[in-house]
Amino acid sequence: MRASYVTNYTTESATKTPVLKKEFAANLDVRAKMLISFSVSLAVIPLYHIEALAILLTVSLAYLLSIRRFWITLVAYITLAFLCGLAILSSFMVSHLFPNMKGLTLATFILPFIRIAILLNVILVMAITSRVQGMLQGLKSLRLPYFIYLPAAVMIRFIPVFIKDVSQIKDSLKTKGYDIRPVFVCLHPFFTVRLLFVPLVIRALRSADELGIAAELKGVGLRDNISHYRKKQLGKSDYVVLLLTLAILAVAFGIQYGFVS
Amino acid sequence: MIELKNVTYTYPHQSEPALSNLSISVSEGEIVLCTGASGCGKSTLINLLNGLIPQFYEGHLEGSVSINGVDNSTRRISEIATDVGTLFQDPEQQFLALNVEDELAFPHEWRGESPTRIREMIDGISNMMGIKDLISKDILHLSEGEKQKTALASIILLTPKVLILDEPTANLDPEATYEFAVLLQKLSSKGMTIFVVDHRLYWLKEIANRLFILQQGKLVYEGSFHDLNQSDAFDSFGLRQMDIDDPRMNLEECSEDSKNGLTLNGLTFAYKNHPPVFQNRSFQLPFGKVIAMIGQNGAGKTTFARLITGLEKANSGEIFIEKSKITPTQLLRKSSIVLQNTDHQLHMKTVREELFLSANAAGIDNAGDRIDELLDYFDLKDLENRHPQSLSGGQKQRLVIACGIVKEPDVLILDEPTSGLDGRNMRLIASLLKKTALCNTCVLIISHDLELIELCADLKLTIAAPN
Amino acid sequence: MTDKSPLVIGISQPRKRYWQPRELVVIGVFSALIKLSSLLIAIAGGGMNPVTLGLKNLVATMLLVVLIAKVRKPGTLLLFVVISSIVSALLNSVQLFLLPGAIIAALTGEVVLYLVRKHHELASILMSIAIFDFVSRLISLTLSYLMFRESMGLFVMAAIIIAIGYIGCVLGLGSGILFTKELKHAGIIRH
After folding, report:
1. What is the extent of the structural domain holding C166?
2. Of C2, C14, C186, which has the smallest distance from its Cβ to B390's Cβ?
3. Quick one: how far is CA C39 from the chain centroid?
4. CB-nearest partner of B389 from C1, C8, C186
5. Parallel, antiparallel, or unpaired for β B335-338 and B411-415?
6. Subunits adjacent to chain C (3 or more Cβ pairs under 8 Å)
7. CB-hemisphere CA count at 13 Å for B186?
């Protein structure tokens, strides 16, 4: 019967996640999406020219909007705006406490937020369009050594298992009379840890022992030359998007350093 | 194929041996069952056969264990594994991949096999095991029977000569158990030696060639099922029944004219973007009875349990307790649910604290007295200061049921409360459930355990699959 | 069925590796647990508030203590950091940018453990995790400065968040000891 609980949770959660197959970003290889967000995250640090950053912001926002998850996008941007408000308050307090420090100008205030928004756009695309199975495939294609690949694969394998466990623990607590909501967590942080994490850690330790033994009995980790049953090559669209990313980053740096007017 | 000679094994820091002077011999192609009450040494025996003892679990070992004519002490665990495949109780815990095909492929990728060869092997095993339709499925979405088949296929693909099965039917329904028995017969006819460790006996009676019974680490019976006296099996060895008539057919259905109890009128419920699980259905669950919930996988038994505990809210319909209409929030206070995995339900440092945790949330006055009463009632008094996670399976199960009862619920739901328990513990739980129902509680069990249903169920509630 | 499949293990002797599959599985399982616990607390705690921030770090450090107490092998902390970063990078590649800093912090913790040369003592484990947490926070502060260099207000805000997180880490060390002792008492950790 435990399986039935699982089925219900998964079907229920599946209904909450719209199918993304039609959107082009969902069909991109996980390695391509990794390269895009990694190169963008590296680029935003040295960039300080507002027009260069504005170009990246526009293109990355279009990339995010292409997956048509407008509600999540809106929530993320509202959160960012909230942080922006906190920053104004914080800057005001700092300039009040330390009058010698530079005051707030539009450029100095807005640049860090543009950087965060760019990162948010590329990260959200990855997070929303990636599926656990795709992550495992992506991980395999990175050709990592055994001692990194095995725990990383186990980590990905266990994330959905723990999500399911947490749901069961929360349900069990709810029928006992403990509803883990924000107010409860803030009023009883240590008690929350005991209620939620003790069962989870014990489950983790027991599962790890059992899975470790099973892996050993199946001969995992015996040889260096692991074969690859499924070989996934980057597709045309992956190469096109990667080239486009490089071109846009080149334009942004060109604007900053005066090569492009 | 399997040969144990005068084996005595003692775990580290223990004075008493877990297995004592054990000698067993099993031939090629035989199906044997090893059984006995909890703690008799069955798991230790499995770990000796696959080499985990003494290479993983240390300790003191005397005597010899040989598989396929080779002494285990001369080989590493991985080398022994080429002859012995082990299927543990919970197949899900053995999966490293998230997809059936990947799970079957990965041990061979680690062996450097070519993708073409792996493809051939997967095609072969999926035809043989009848899992062709499952190949592309997500492992977490499989039924328990399908998980069991997948795990077994993965092991058989490694071509072991001996197959060890630890409680293989603990999570299977009677129909899947029968299918599994047929599969084992097929494997044995191909020359595979099958060593089953299980508490459930009925499904093996017709297929096992021999039976070993262990008691406190010693072999106390070796022979056929037919030569074993049923009363010895029950009283002396604490085993389960060897013959069971399916009790589900004979139980009376919950009728709609029960005077007091839980009433659900015009219930309609559907998960978002899914067809309804229940459409304008009515149910009546009387108090003071143990009710077995019957239905195929996917019929909606779990959804029903979630609705009557208040964990899920119906789209329409009304729920009454003795003619008073109640809301899902009120239902949460009046019901308890005991899940199959006891580890998920134990949070505190001692057994007593665990009961206090449940009592405090329910606002029970004089919780101390009530807890003392329950500790006696569930035979846990001597263990009240023990850490709940250090208890045996049967003790943990009794504790989680006690935690469910401490708030004096009107409805108590138990999900597979006796899976993996020996005969003695199963009978103890059955009698406790009957006693609990007598306190005017509606006890609802979701279980595949035919013996439990036979022992304690008064009525059945059939949940039909939605059209 | 599979008659042709070669039994590779029986033919060639596998070499003994430094990391056994069971140790790697424990590290993988705990990396998932630590990652998920942060997410869970953030959701259950209603987003970003000081209690949630502190609690997130408390639980992460507490679980890290349990992991290292369970595996007790030099390199565990470093491997944990590397695989957590790689898997996070599959969802959020910005994590790769943080990887060098995390490796430096983990290496510092490992060096401390090496110098103390007592992998089996809980005190040494605590010291290495304490140093790892401290160096991680220093690196986070530096990165925050680079990111928000034009606006000191934002940097101060980031510094406050990092400080609250660090308080959580310190409390997590204490909780980690207590929890490890409890798991030993329950017979779940046997060292």
Report:
1. 20-185
2. C186
3. 15
4. C186
5. parallel
6. A, B
7. 11
Please tell me the predicted confidence (pLDDT) of residue A10: 36
Residue with tokens 């935690």: B403
Sign of CA dihedral B55, B60, B65, B71: positive
Kindly report the backbone phi and psi dihedral angles of residue B195, in degrees, each rounded to the nearest multiple of 5, phi listed first. Answer: -115, 105
Q: How many domains does chain C have?
A: 1
List all residues 6 or more positions away from A243 whose beta carbon is below 8 Å from its beta carbon.
none
Contacts of C23 in chain A (CB under 8 A): 212
Chain B residue with Cα closest to A231 = B115
- B100-109 helix and B144-156 helix, angle to the nearest 10 degrees: 20
Q: What is the model's pLDDT at position A20? A: 45
Residue C6 binned pLDDT confidence (cut-offs 50, 70, 90): very low
In this predicted complex, what is the ipTM? Answer: 0.82
Q: Is residue C170 part of a domain?
A: yes
Q: Which residues of C touch A120 (CB under 8 A)?
A: none
Nearest to B61 by CA among B48, B70, B74, B50: B48
C8 falls within a domain: no
Q: What is the pLDDT at residue A251?
A: 92
**DSSP for B101-128?**
HHHHHHHHHTTT--HHHHHHHHHHHHHH
Whether C5 maps to a domain, the answer reads no
CATH of the domain at C125: 1.10.1760.20
**What secondary structure does DSSP assign to A133-193, as a single string?**
HHHHHHHHHTT--HHHHHHHHHHHHHHHHHHHHHHHHHHHHHHHT----HHHHHH-HHHHI
Strand pairing report for B162-166 and B84-87: parallel
Considering only CB atoms, A155 lies closest to which of C23, C28, C66, namely C28
How does B98-136 read in b/e, with b if 16+ C-beta sit within 10 Å? bbbbbbbbbbbbbbebeeebbeebbebbbebbebeebee
Residue C191: helix, strand or coil by DSSP? coil
Backbone phi, psi, residue B197, to 5°: -115, 115
The residues with which B261 forms a beta bridge, in sequence order, are B286
> Measured between CB atoms, does C142 come within 8 Å of chain A?
no
Question: B404: distance to nearest CA of chain A, Å?
Answer: 8
User: Structure pTM?
Assistant: 0.80
Helices (H), B8-96: 42-49, 52-55, 77-80
State the Cα–Cα distance between residues B113 and C4, nearest whole angstrom.
Answer: 12
Taking one residue from B and the other from C, the number of pairs with CB-CB distance under 8 angstroms is 43
Task: Tell me the residues of chain A between 141 and 200 that have a Cβ less than 8 Å away from chain C.
Answer: 142, 144, 146-148, 150-159, 162-163, 166, 180-183, 185-186, 189-190, 192-193, 196-197, 200
Q: Which residues of B touch A11 (CB under 8 A)?
A: 271, 274
Residues of B in contact with A160 (CB under 8 A): 98, 140
Strands B162-166 and B193-197: what pairing? parallel
Return d(Cα C119, Cα B187) in angstroms, integer: 48
By DSSP bridging, strand B19-26 and strand B2-10 are antiparallel
Q: Provide, as residue numbers in chain B, all residues whose Cβ is less than 8 Å from the Cβ of C22.
A: 56
Q: What whole-number distance in Å separates Cα of residue C15 and Cα of residue B384?
A: 48
With respect to residue C13, please indicate whether it lies within any of the assigned structural domains. no
Report which of C150, C95, C168 is spatially closest to residue A87, judged by C-alpha positions: C150
User: For each successive 10 residues of chain A (261 residues), what is the average pLDDT?
Assistant: 34 39 71 84 84 91 87 85 75 68 62 84 82 72 82 86 86 87 86 90 88 82 71 82 92 83 58
